[in-house]
Amino acid sequence: MSKQKITPPKNTKTTVATPPPLTEVPTAQKPLAFTKENYYLMFSGIIALLAGLYIMSIDKETFGFGFMGLTLGPVIVFLSFMVQFVAILYRKK
What we know:
Helices cover 48% and strands 0% of the residues. It has helices at 36-57, 67-89. The chain is elongated, with a radius of gyration of 30 Å. It starts with 35 loop residues before the first helix and ends with a helix.
């Protein structure tokens, strides 16, 4: 049995499909992702986060095992992260 090479025809053209033209809105006309209210909420969440961390650091008990270091500070930090979550998802109706 003899081996035959299979070759493509010589007169075929290979074409690459071009993508359709972009119909994107220019960046100057796109609305911003967040509004002024979102930024206010984010800023207040950052302030609350810093306040919670400060409250945890000023606890006078050994290794921060007092009420402020174990309860009050972490609760404020948790709530400030919830404020950040709401600030990201908040959309004006």
